Structures are given as C-alpha cells and as structure tokens.
Fold this sequence. Notes:
Blueprint: H1 12-38, H2 40-51, H3 55-58, H4 60-101, H5 103-109, H6 112-139, H7 146-172, H8 180-185, H9 188-199, H10 203-222, H11 247-274, H12 284-308, H13 314-334, H14 337-351, H15 354-362, H16 370-379, H17 383-398, H18 405-421
Amino acid sequence: MPNIAVSRSGGTSEAATTYTGALATVTSLFFMWGFVTVLNDILVPHLKAIFDLGYAKVMLIQFAFFSAYFIFSIPSAKLIDWIGYKRTMVVGLMTMGVGALLFLPAASAASYVLFLCALMVLAAGITALQVAANPYVAVLGPERTGSSRLNLTQAFNSFGTMIGPYLGGLLILSANPKTSDQLHQMPAAALQAYRVQEASSVKLPYLIIGIALILLGVVIGMIKLPAMPHAERHGETGPKTSLWKYPHLVFGAIGIFVYVGGEVSIGSFLINYFTQKNIGNISEVAAAGFVSYYWGGAMFGRFIGSAILQKVETRIVLGIAAAAACALVIISMLTVGHVAMWSIILVGFFNSVMFPSIFTLGIAKLGPLTGDGSGMLIMAIVGGAMIPVMQGALADRIGIHHAFILPVLCYVYIFYYALRGSKPSGPGIAVA
C-alpha cells in the first residue's frame, strides 16, 4: 500500500495525490456509520412489535443512541487533542464493534433494556468517529471547498443509509408480526419465547457488522494518514478562548441539533407512517424498501450538492434546501396517499446538504479550536435523541400524520441559520 503521509516540502501534485488517498480511506468510515445508524429505523418497528411499545417508548431507541453523542462528544474531542485524528477514528471503530456484538446477548435475553445499552455503546463509537472524521475531511484541503469535500464523503454515508433499510428489512423484520391483542392473549412463558425467537433475527446482521468494524479499525490503524497540526492542539496548555465566543459555532450547534432531530424523526416514523391505511397501506417489509428511497435521495443530493458547492456559496444552498424540505413536510401533512408518501420521501434529497453545510459553516475559521468546535457540533447530534421522542409523544396524542409539525419547525430554524446565524464572528475573526 502506498505511503500517504503528507510531505510539507513536497510539490502540489504530491500533496493532492496524498489528500485524495486519505479522503478515499476516511470515506469508508462515513459509509459504515451511515449503514449502522440507519438500522435504527428497522429496529423501531421491529422492537415496537416484539415488546408491544407505544410510539414514545419505542423512540427510546433513538434516545439511547443519540444521547451518546451528547455524553461522549467532548471526551472524543479531548481524545483528538491527546492522540490525534487517526487514532481517535480507530478507537471509535473498535468501540462500535463491541457495541454491535452486544446485540447478541440482548437478543438472547429478549431484553429491551439490553438493546438500549448496546445501542448506546455502538453510538459512543460512532461519536468518536464523527468528531474525528468530519473536521478531518473539512480541513483536508482548501477551506473554500470544505463543504464540497464533506458533502462528497457524506454522500457515501448516505449510500450506507440507502442500502441499510432494504437489507435490514429483509434480514430483521418479521413478515407477519403479531398484533398487540395477540401478544396480550399469550401466556407469559410463550410470550417470552416468542420475543426471543423474533429478537434473534438481529444476531447475524450485527455479528457481521461487529466483525467488519473491528477489522476496519485494524486496517485504519495500519494506514498512514496526513497529520493536520493547524487543526490540533497537541500539548497546548494554559487558557484558551471559549467556544461560546463564536456565535456562528453556537448557532451551528443548534442547527445540527434540529437538523439531526428532524431527519431522524422523519426516518424513524416512515415505516409506521407508510403502513397507515390512508397513506401507503402496505406491509412493514414493503415500507422498509421505501425508506431506502428517502435515504437514497440524500445520497444523490450529496453528490449533486458537492458539485454545486464548488460554484455556489454554502449559505445559499443551505437556505434553499431548508425552504424546500419545510414545504415538502407541510405538503405531506396536508395530503394522503401517494402524494403524502412521495413528498415526505423527497425531503431526503433536500436533507442531503444540510449536515455538511452546517458543520463546515460552524467550524469556519476556528483554527486550533477546530477539534473542540467539532466536539460541540457533534454533541448537538443529541437532537436525534430528543426530538424523535417528542414527536413520538405528539404522535400518541394527535396521530402520526400531523406529528410531523415538529420537523417543520426544525427546517425553519435551519433557514434562519443559513441567512443570518452562520456568518463567522468571534475572537481573531475579521468582520467581513
């Protein structure tokens, strides 16, 4: 394998080749965490049926998963300061592998609590991976094209989220899940046996995922990646500037919070939404296939967005995407049948550029504080824990159809951030 370490004294072409190899290597990580994360959309209806859960309680799946971002983001940022970007990525992959393997005892015991614990460990690893990989890609080349690079790598993340629901639906979902009334009529022993049998469908997928993640961690550990000393704080001591003095970073963290919350809320409810008689009136397995279109739209949108962002300012692209997504969710809420289905699916296309655009706008001009700023932004992914639970509680009260009002409010804020909140400001940043 060629040495891909950057030589600072080397020519421009050598650096470009080096960065291309490094970018390709890190892109594989984006694919893996996208694939693993989207399987939560399969676990939601699967565990809802097995354990006879309401919408609010089953959304604890997303709460357990995304709350790990809040807990482990700042420690992950400190880990970058101590051991660098590459080693933090390796730690993240190994932790993800352990979390995936914990699904095996959770399934054997048919314990909802153990499933939630396994999800939190898995997400802790993804947190370390995201805190390291996102800013690494953003600074791996000219600042002007940071959003474009991150959109490109996020496109492969979306490739993982596109194929995940289809494969997960085939391997995990039951073709004929028992109804709530049938579960209530079963004796306790028979009910537990049924739950163990149904839960066992997650064992093979997560065993394969766990082994693959650990092997990938070993491979990444053996590869040389270029260091980014201008975006690290190794050995730095003494006082440092507070991140709260950079409004574009703080507003960006709120933007990440509502974006992830809105995107995850929509994805989590799609299978149950499409099975509604007045929407799609299809089976859960068939609905899982349509979820792939939602995430597939994000993949194609990121490839297209990567090209557009080479020419158009990031704030403009973000604002247009937020306005379009907001309009599409409202259309889905006000209609039924295929119009409601396809309008909500199309939201995925406009979601595509949001995370990488908000992220690069948020860490703009932070210099050595880039790693810490990344930690704050990734911590804000906790929105994926809180907003789906809020939407679940809303769905239990007013119905799943109109509970999508919550993502509408999320996109309204993102539109504001694109127009006003994303302008870089703070200590050491010249006002344009």
